[in-house]
Amino acid sequence: MIDTWKRWCEAPVSPLARLSVTTFFAAVGFLLVGALNKFEEKIIDELNDLGANRIQIRERVSSFAELDGGLFLDGFGPYLSYGILPLQAQVETKHTFPVYALSDSDWDRVGELFPGLPLHAPLILSNKLTSHSPIGLNIKIGNLEFEASILNRVDSLLHSYFGEAVLISYSEVVPIGNLSHHRMYQIDMHDHGAIRSALASWIALEGFIPNKYQYTDASQLKSKLERFKRTKAQVLIGASFTIGFLVILMYMSLTIMEFKQSKYVVALMKSFGVSQAVIFFQRMLENIGIVIVSFGIGLMVSLTVSLQHSFLSQIIIYNARGTIAMCIIAASGMLAAFIATLPVLLYLKADPGKILK
Amino acid sequence: MIEVKNLTFGYGEKYIFENYNNQFSSGIHLIKGFSSCGKTTLLKLIAGLLSFKQGSITYKGKAVGGKAYLRDQLGYVFQDLNLLPDASIERNMLIRASLNSNDMKLITQRIQEFSAMLGLTDLMQSSPEQLSLGQQQRAAVMRAIIHMPHILIMDEPTSSLDDLNTEVIKRVIEQFVHLNNDRVVLVATHDERLNSIADEIYDFNKFLPIDRHLETMVRSTR
To answer: How many angstroms separate the CA atoms of A257 and A263, rounded?
Structure first.
């Protein structure tokens, strides 16, 4: 190792060329992994917002009194009951939102489901509205006017219940009347099979009425995500092969360029009694060592670039999937370094006496 | 003793040696002859740097060649010297010496002794290209003996050297043999100045007829 280091110090061009180009490939590869991770995370977030991980069943009930009655899905997961006004809330910003009226017990349940949610009604759930006023914005529902606070960063689960909407106390909108009453269950996908069979039994008993029940099945969205993951894996394999191929190409080119000098040094070492295996493994370990160091520097470069560049700052390099991807790219680089050492075998067998004069 | 028995070797279809026999006992042996008569080839064969199909070459009854022989028993001064061009003279020595000894203290001591003997003390950190031909030649000799081999093979070690440099190399060869009477030194040379230290002089011309030499020379100039 010491000899290798001294040799590199004496003739730094060759190792530096290998190091710099491999570092560049590694950094590009890691940034690509980061971008793919970010894209995947984004899809997962979007699917979560769409309720992809949950079954959502909405039941329309005939009266407010029915809302708190037990339903067949009790026990499978939390539910919310609410009334929907036939009117839209008009916000002073000219935006309009549907209005959900919650009873006191519903507000309590919302509080349990979403700790930290400001519970002073009315509350606008919207990611697109902002207000610099501590109170919020003026809204108008029918002939009634309110001062509403705004929740800008709406939790994806809460969003899947109500979307962009105004939540208000039931007592505030009673005078407006004509509420339709609903109850909604959000149940995690891991109970999917049990829910399906319970739902099937129930539908068999009561019949399924589309206007009364809404049932969201996320399996299609899930399969879309799976398709993306497969595509991502293909891109990753492609990137690994490309990086591996480029490393082989570059290292082999350098090996061929240095062929004469390298052949002479190998012959001289053989004339000193150094075994062929030692020479080969030393060359191989040198190449692999350069690749490992390059990938370390490449990782640091990609992290630094992603921190300093506003566009790239979004990418995710560190996560479980990213680590596996980086390991695959690094392994392909090391394999390439090994393959690139093979040309040494061409002159390793030759008699030193035929090379050295 | 080095023993060459029934050695047959050639490049391509032309044989340089056919059933060649010789013995080189302890001491200094000069091998003389026309250019391209096979002096260097014989040295390389004895060094185990060329493989041959027929015959045998042994040192103390064991076939020459192999890692241990090259590493421990042999020191070789090539005609082209073959110093590592990017390495300093000191590292050229360290690389060679550390292959058969891990004793850095001993290696350092030897480097100091031999560099003083060969007048290279102030040049140890220089690269070969910074040295004159005479200094390079002395450095090549030093590298060949730094690990105290039993066999020292030198191919034209004093070609294009002035008398002073030649005298230094002659003295080193004599001291090398004098330190251990068991050592064998083979020197391929045209240089008459080395005759005075030789225990034996082999004239290769007598093995090969003149017309064969001419044929070889004509072939090599084509």
So the answer is: 11
Give the strands of the sheet with B151-155, arranged side by side.
B74-77, B151-155, B184-188, B27-32, B200-203
Q: Could you tell me the end-to-end alpha-carbon distance of chain A, in angstroms, rounded to an integer? A: 29
DSSP type of residue B71: I
A38, A314, A350, B163 from A311: Cα distances, Å = 12, 6, 54, 74
Q: Which residues, listed in sequence order, are joined to residue A90 by a DSSP beta bridge? A: A96, A140
Residue A304 buriedness (CB in 10 A; 0-12 / 13-18 / 19+): exposed
User: For residue A295, how far is the Cα from the chain centroid?
Assistant: 23
Place of tokens 């606070």: A149
The 8-class DSSP code of residue B150 comes to: S
- State whether residue A353 sits within 8 Å of chain B by CB: yes
Task: Please state, in angstroms and as integers, the Cα–Cα distance from residue A250 to each residue in A56, A64, A336, B117, following that order.
Answer: 55, 74, 10, 46
Give dist(CA A43, CA A36) in Å, integer: 11
Burial bucket for residue B195 (CB in 10 Å: 0-12, 13-18, 19+): exposed
pLDDT in tens, chain A (357 residues): 557 888 888 888 888 988 898 888 888 888 887 787 777 777 777 666 665 556 666 777 766 666 555 555 566 666 777 888 888 888 888 889 999 888 887 888 788 777 777 767 788 888 777 766 667 788 998 888 888 888 877 676 677 778 889 999 888 877 776 777 777 776 665 555 666 676 666 666 666 555 555 555 556 667 777 887 888 778 877 877 788 788 778 878 887 787 777 888 889 999 998 888 888 888 888 888 888 898 888 888 877 777 766 555 555 555 555 677 677 777 877 887 888 788 888 888 888 888 888
ipTM exceeds 0.90, yes or no: no
Distance CA(A308)–CA(A297), nearest Å, equals 16
The number of angstroms, rounded, from the C-alpha of A14 to the middle of its chain's C-alpha atoms is 39
- Count interface pairs A-B at CB distance under 8 A: 56
Q: A271 at the B interface (CB within 8 A)?
A: yes
**Euclidean distance between CA atoms B50 and B41, whole angstroms:** 8
Cβ-contact B128, B85 below 8 angstroms: yes
Cα–Cα distance, A243 to A249 (Å, whole number):
10
For residue A356, list chain B residues with Cβ-Cβ distance below 8 A.
49, 78, 80, 82
Token couple for B216: 């070889």
Q: A1: exposed, middle or buried (C-beta count within 10 Å: 0-12, 13-18, 19+)? A: exposed
Beta-carbon separation of B67 and A275 below 8 A: yes
**A274 interface with B at CB cutoff 8 Å:** yes
User: Do B44 and A265 count as a contact with CB atoms less than 8 A apart?
Assistant: no
Question: What span, in angstroms and rounded, lies between the C-alpha atoms of A217 and A196?
Answer: 10
Nearest CA of chain A to the CA of B41: how many Å? 8
Touching check for A265 and chain B: CB below 8 Å?
A: yes
Would you say B55 and B6 are in contact if contact means Cβ atoms under 8 Å apart? Answer: yes
Q: Do B69 and A265 touch (CB under 8 A)?
A: no
What letter would DSSP give residue A176? Answer: T
